[in-house]
Protein 1
Amino acid sequence: MIAIKNINKSFGERQVVKNVSFEFTQGKTNLIIGESGCGKTTILKMMVGLHEVDSGEILYDGQNFPALNSDGKQEIRKKIGMLFQGGALFDSQTLEENVRFPLDMFTDWSFEKKMERVEFCLQRVKLEGKNKLYPAELSGGMKKRAALARAIANNPNYLFCDEPNSGLDPKTSIVIDDLIKDITYEFNITTIIVTHDMNSVIEIGDNIMFVHKGENRWTGDKNQVLKSDNKELTDFVFASEFMKTVFLDRHKK
Amino acid sequence: MKLFFHIGRYFMLMFRVFKRPQNYRVYLRQIIFEIDSIGITSLPIVAIISVFMGGIITIQAAYAVDSPLVPLYTVGFTTRESMILEFSSTILCLILAGKVGSNIASEIGAMRISEQIDALEIMGINSASYLIFPKIAGAIIIFPCLVILSMFLGLVGGFIMGVSSGACTAYEYVFGIQAFFMPWKVGFSIAKCITFAFLITSVSSYYGYYTSGGALEVGRSSTNAVVYSSILILLFSLIYTNLFIGH
């Protein structure tokens, strides 16, 4: 289980994360939502160690991640898979090599066994047969799916996704959301997703934290988010009349 | 104060680079790849420049020693000394700093801004070691080979130009390049180029690794890598020369 307790982060004089606490549920999709610039990606980056925390605790099964030495952090990171906003696939490697990379580094499996796993992961994200393509030859949606395949290659316990739907059309966004949700339930992974995509919130939000101006202002799930009377949350969720109509209609059904 | 910041951060990065590799087989594969990427692809430019420089040094030496009191084999002797002591190690490495250094800085810098280095870190990989160590090791292995090749081709270029232009005869040139030969000078040149190989790859990797921002900053890192590598090459060349052949 992952929990964050009273974490704070400033960049110079500007405090971007203020005393945020939250518990992420195992085997569920946990969403950190909020408008652009509210500090949600900073929270995610602190959780994986890409940003240092100023104060507070990030607990992975009781171990305080920021207090660990570099070897301790590396051990926890081996259990983490991450889907970056731009995919972050290695340009010089084919799709197959990208997915095989964590296996090459951390397992002593035979080449055949590694390839079996690669095929399974590519099949899982519906990219079978694309093994020899380079990242430059993939579309935005395919890059995200390939990055997801790489993220799950080493059987992670935790999956972090930074804006998995950014830059994608609505149809592809739904495909990515469904994949993340299915993989989370299938492998009992603790998934943490940073998003401002309201469709994702309604479709896959098992456990949601709403961040506003660096603070945790609301927590709940996808069924509660539309009923909430928290003004900041409703301003965010129903940013336009159109969205209000669509989401409330869907909720009634 | 900024200088001390960079020096401190550079040594901290090197400390991470030389940590125990996480997977020897993968590192070995990367080193072989870097030998090809850094060294083999530099062969054409090394060959062309060395042949031309050998020829130019020969013609200039012939022009400078245009006196009946100086024996003509001095032309070959001067070409050999210039090629071995300075050109094939220092000048060649300055040229390679431009080609290899900018390549390394922009490659690692682009990986940084596209979050590929973050991806490595999150996988639990020591990104500094995985990305930089094979480049340093590859350069240290291949640079001496390039320098020896450059010495040989420079002398061949000198021979072709010297004889074809009538600056000296083939016998005088060949006698000159063998006269008063001291093998330790070749060792001195190789020691210099190993130092330069380390400087070019580590300094360029440093600038690439700490790139932040976008395409503009990648370009800036690439420029800084070439400028500072070149300055350090000249500084260390001066130190080596003073230590080993200075009075």
Protein 2
Amino acid sequence: MKDKTQVSDIDRSFYDFRYEENEGDFLDSGLSADIIREISEEKNDPEWMREFRLKSLDIYNRTPMVGWGASIEGLDIDNIVTYIRQKNRMNTDWNAVPEDIKQTFEKLGIPQAERESLAGVGAQYDSELVYHNVREEVAKSGVVYTDLESAMHDPKYADMIHAHFMKLVPPTDHKFAALHGAVWSGGSFVYVPKNVHLDIPLQSYFRLNAKGAGQFEHTLIILEENSSLHFIEGCSAPKYYEAGLHAGCVELYVGKDASLRYSTIENWSKNMYNLNTKRAIVQENGRIEWVSGSFGSHVSYLYPMSILNGRGASAEFTGITFAGEGQDLDTGAKIVHNAPDTSSYMNTKSISKSGGKSTFRSAVTVNENAVGSKSSVNCESLMLDGISRSDTVPAIVVKTDKCDVGHEARIGRISDEAIFYLTSRGISEEEARAMIVRGFADNVSKELPLEYAVEMNNLIGLEMHGSIG
Amino acid sequence: MEKTRYNILPVPTFGKLGVNHAERDTVISETEEYRIESGGDELIIQYNDSDNSSKRTELILDPNAKVRLVRVFDRPEPAVSELKAVIAEGAELELTELYIGGRDTVSGIDVRLDGRRASFKADIAYTLSDEEKLDINLVAEHNGKKSTSEIAVGGVLSDRAAKVFKGTIDFKQGASGAVGSEREEVLLLSENVVNKTVPVILCAEEDVEGNHGATIGRIDERHIFYMKSRGIPEEKIYELTARSRLMRVIKQIESSETQKQIFEALGWGDDDEQ
């Protein structure tokens, strides 16, 4: 019998190392006002934040679960540890980071990437940032890249954070936004002043090491007029049999004529529920570009949203999702055209195999005031076997006649015609299939920074072997 | 009165978009059933005007049966319509639908392609003005191997009209070789219209081909420039384009009597229909 061409699942062994935790550092699992107060105490929150957390808990308790999307029945919040105490203070000296944590990030290549190609790096381990550093010349230009907690206590930024924190994603947005508001910890604050352009990226890496825990980091980025930034985030966790939860929140404020590129490679282990919320608001002639690779987690809900709020603002979303065995990845994007002459472009690819399920879900809304706006959505899905599933659920809402909105979607398998064409030119059938699958993902990988494109290729692990069947 | 949920999207999505279902207090009071036996070939024309109440139509197509179903909705009052069809091996259903206004029309079309090489072709057009509302939910469920569906929808919205079109192609496991396509073109003629389009593909089978597309907006500026340069005023260009979207469907209707009824409903004179 012929062996059917195989495209392997993502090889996660590289990410599955872990270190034992001292459970004395864990707060009790579950959610209660006492736990929230304890988190506030541990973090020395200002008074407004203490109140904000408790109010968010109240919203969480009365907000129903979403009535659509992947099943999250296996997630019991009462079994999730929402906060793990910091072992050491956050460092700007890599050598001062605790040895086990240092080894974790050394294995993931973070310090090496910092030395070679980044303007600054932040590393979060469980609930808290353990390392944050920014190059001297970048700091001199006025760019701030630090952990959110430090910035919140700095008189220079305290008001700015109070004015922006969870204003784009309010706790009332959905149940897990409320949860985030109650228990958030860690994450980054980035401020880029007017007319400052960062040519090399900043990167934050989030690592959840503890078993049965949640990570709730908050990323707040503010770009002033005519500034630019490329921000990269990476996420991973070792595999456990208990469910883990990631309910982070990203809020991006892109000023007039400013430009922000936000790249993510998400590779949580397959016990993780990734219920993340990302949102950007873009002012006049500003631009937001999202590049998103979703490979890990058991269940994902991830739809970065762009609100185009100033005339001529634009958004571009490029995403790839690879759903393998045991994964239900519900991903996509949302775009709101809320000013004249705005434009958006969405280009996504999904691959499903070994019983995995990928869902592309999107919403493009063109409001009454968005006259002269243009939007184009393109999504393609590839099924690699007959036991997997791939769904496409886009929605378009248009409230003005003076706009142009287009949508194209395609689903299928590797076409026999393409194989025939390539084999007629002397390429073996096996190689032809490999080329087509790689080419399918290539549109997205070429949008990633080089080191991340290499990581993505490693992640996909496109191994073609055996004869063709 | 308790409301009933109609037009339920097979896979619900973001609740804030208001597309997951249509809740109405209208009740379906009448069901028409048709069974077309093997080898049969029938033309069914339903002209739903103000005399008809909300109605359900059920069609069973036995192997190799052929049906052309023409449905015209020319009802000013709120109404709910449901069409359910089951298509057996080698059978073909061709559906032509035209929606002329209507204060609040909800139309559900649920087609199961159960047999091998079962075929479904739909050509749907609508024109809405004033504060008219239309909600269409079309589901083509592919169970049969090599079954095909081809769905074309086009329409014109003006004034404060609001329309929802949800089109789902659902490839079930085992429907190998199935092909489904869906396209909607919406022409918007007023700044106060609301258009919602939800083209869904659900896929549990590897060996299928599915695609959908949608184009929503105004007339292409190059098209307007071309016609203006030939002396046609802009107002007329919009009118002609809107008519052409409807004529694409009207000309498919075999009955000249039905066509005449449609032209009267649209307020088109004899010269216009030429």
